[in-house]
Amino acid sequence: MITHPAFTVEPWAVTEDSLHLDVLAQSESVFALSNGHIGLRGNLDEGEPFGLPGTYLNGFYETRPLPYAEAGYGYPEDGQTVVNATNGKIIRLLVDDEPFDIRYGELLAHTRVLDLRAGELRREVRWRSPSGREIEVKTTRIVSFVQRSVAAIRYEVRPIDGRSLRVVAESELVANEPGSAQSGDPRAAAALRAPLQAEEQEVHDLRIVLVHRTKASGLRMAAGMDHVVETFDGLDMGAEAGPDLGRVWLTAEIAPDTPLVFTKFLAYGWSSQRSIPSVRDQVAAAVASARHTGWDALVQSQRDYLDDFWGRADVEIDGDGELQQAVRFGLFHTLQAGARAERRAIPAKGLTGSGYDGHVFWDTETFVLPVLTYTHPDAVVDALLWRHATLDLAQDRAKQLRLEGAAFPWRTIRGHECSAYWPAGTGAFHINGDIADAVIRYLRATGDEVFEAAQGLELLVNTARLWRSLGHHDHSGAFHIDGVTGPDEYSAVVDDNVYTNLMAEQNLRVAAEIASRHPDEARALGVDEEEIAAWRDAATNMHIPYDRRLAVHPQDADFTHHELMEFEGLEYPLLLHYPYFLLYSKQVCKQPDLVLAQFLRGDRFTPAQKARNFAYYEPLTVRDSSLSACVQAVAAAEVGHVELAYDYFGEAALMDLGDLEHNTRDGLHMASLAGSWLAAVAGFGGMRGFGGELSFHPRLPSALARLCFRVMYRRTCLRVTITHAEAVYELLDEGDPLTVRHQDEVVTVRFDAPVRRGWTVPDPGPEPRQPAGREPDRRRPR
């Protein structure tokens, strides 16, 4: 399944054993390093060649106009686009006056390794220059999880032809990097063409700090670098800086037994409010702190951080080495996206590329945060605090739309709505329910009473108010939500979308519960008993359509009345080959919608309903979204189609290592990477958290001998091991016992007292077919 010609399969790393320029951009995304605050694409150290250069700071963006051929009330006026910040990765090398460039001379060997346990990107190169000199270059790059503002590069060069060699290493900070405005939207490209205005440069010994400001959004950033060079006789050093370039050079005559070795420390910071001296001094202090810590201590703290993470989050798979690698790769990048975001968004691409303009969508709350809730809950509360920090903007948007409460944006960086296509943007109000769902899941998994009584309550109150004003009771008392778009973007502006209604029902009901539990805090938000009663009434009477003729839940009130799509001979993805009005009028799903509803709100469906719904929607779902495969894996496993679930598991897990959507060059698909964990834990582990109770319904495909995963629940780590013979539940932390449900049995797990139970899978009946040409590849273990 892995299509990159040089990736090898191994359990704890992604290794590229040779360089292929035709897939360079894909490798840059795969080898990206981040901590949620800083993101460095895996560009070559010397800067060229590149597929897409990229250095990103979470939340750092430029604005651009969103012109319309025909204006309409409530259309967003401005878009936001992630900015390629000052690049500190570049270390150019001259070998006897010839530039080290792998496109010239002869590349003798080239290996890169993304080490998932160490959190490092290592590179080893052997190169013969056009004049015949041979060198070896070794670099190691990290973005620190422990020192949030810091990244570092260890650089070593030596001759390998037995002769001394004169080299010059030029370490750079480069702003307004050429080739970075890669966008299919000409408005975005124009906004990103040299978006940074120089404000100040500071040089002190081998330390340089550059300060810039974006032209339109007015955000200020600083980037700093400093260097520690190992003792070396005859070394000449210097530094200089201009508006968009800072350069440190090191010149030496080196022998095979005396390589040139130095460490480059980087630091980044930005602010929308602070002054030039404040931002500059923050970065100067961060780079000084990194230098004081030193390379060895930074590397050790990185390993310690990841040892702790893997100890509570690892997923082990016996029987498929490719999936083992892919699931750990997905977990690592999910962690990188959110670990130190600290009240910033988690974009759909993380900080690995400029795809989707760097925007955050519902992907975060529905796919990424469930994983982090059970593996790194501190990152979840930070992500939710970011949503809370944008609440005023969501309230303003609701007022503009003539609604109460808050209308959170479909796509954004700062919190403003940036979707110019309202049917799939503003109309997708389910984002409110997704945010509420993430709040509820976090509260149930952690018991965080402080967050519940403050920001959690305020988020739930404002999202509930939107539903109450958006929906209405009919003459019989049933509550309807009309004119909305659910997760399936091939059905827009529909009435009573089941997913939306069920997420709203949960939102309204839990908002009422928590407001009643915290009456003083609720009153401070203007909530009274009458409003709570209105929420409960709407939740109790929420209309959930059901088609008795077909014995399935329609995706929305009219979906099953539409004409069936004829899939034979169609070109995919459909949205690039057929008009939306055609898609909107047919029974076709871009991605699971009703099926996702019965995963996230499975407490509202019977097992028989789930099986019938899955069988009905599987032949209609074309998977034109990277969000599809993981949901279908979970649903297929739950109803008993375990081998089909295994096929979808492979597709979700290998989305980027296999470049299945042919756009990994633009950045990784964070939702699908997180979705590989969902496929393993919620799919084959059958884990659910309805009503605050952890439950498990194990399954295992024939190709896998064993699945073992760890989850955090109420600050306790539970390990679940599934074989074909049994499921074993173990607590890895001393403390209170944990009660969980295994299939239909309640069991209590105590430390040092594993619980073992057999398991069964229901007979699912015939395996459903997919639309012609959209069948998942049959999984063959590697």
Give a structural overview:
The termini are close together. α6 crosses α19 (670-684), α9 packs antiparallel against α10 and α9 packs across α11 (498-517). This protein has 782 residues and is of the alpha+beta class. β8 (91-95) and β9 (98-99) form a beta hairpin. The protein is 31% helix and 23% strand. The protein has a domain at 87-309: Glycoside hydrolase, family 65, N-terminal domain (Beta-galactosidase, Chain A, domain 5). The strands form eight sheets. The chain has a ten-stranded antiparallel β-sheet. Strands 9-8-14-19-18 form a five-stranded antiparallel β-sheet, with no helix packed on it. It has a five-stranded antiparallel β-sheet with strand order 21-27-28-29-32. It comes from Solirubrobacter ginsenosidimutans. Residues 772-782 have a biased composition (Basic and acidic residues). InterPro entries: 6-hairpin_glycosidase_sf, 6hp_glycosidase-like_sf, Gal_mutarotase_sf_dom, GH65_N, Glyco_hydro_65_C, Glyco_hydro_65_M, Glyco_hydro_65_N, Malt_Pase/Glycosyl_Hdrlase.
What would you say about this model in short?
It is built from 19 helices and 32 strands. It has 782 residues and is of the alpha+beta class.
What's the CATH class of the domain at 87-309, please? Mainly Beta
Arrangement of strands in the largest sheet: 1-2-10-11-12-13-20-17-16-15
Q: Could you tell me the strand content as a percent range? A: 15-25%
Give the biggest sheet.
Answer: 10 strands, antiparallel
Using the 3D structure, state the CATH architecture of the domain at 87-309: Distorted Sandwich
Binding site for substrate: 362-363, 590-591
Organism: Solirubrobacter ginsenosidimutans
GO molecular function: carbohydrate binding; glycosyltransferase activity; hydrolase activity, hydrolyzing O-glycosyl compounds
Domain Glycoside hydrolase family 65 central catalytic: 328-677
